[in-house]
Amino acid sequence: MGLRRRVEITIERRELIAGLSGQSPVSELCAACECEVKMLPVEAAAKASGVSPRILYRWIEQDQVHYRELSDGTVLVCENSLRRK
Question: How many domains is the chain partitioned into structurally?
Answer without folding.
Answer: 1
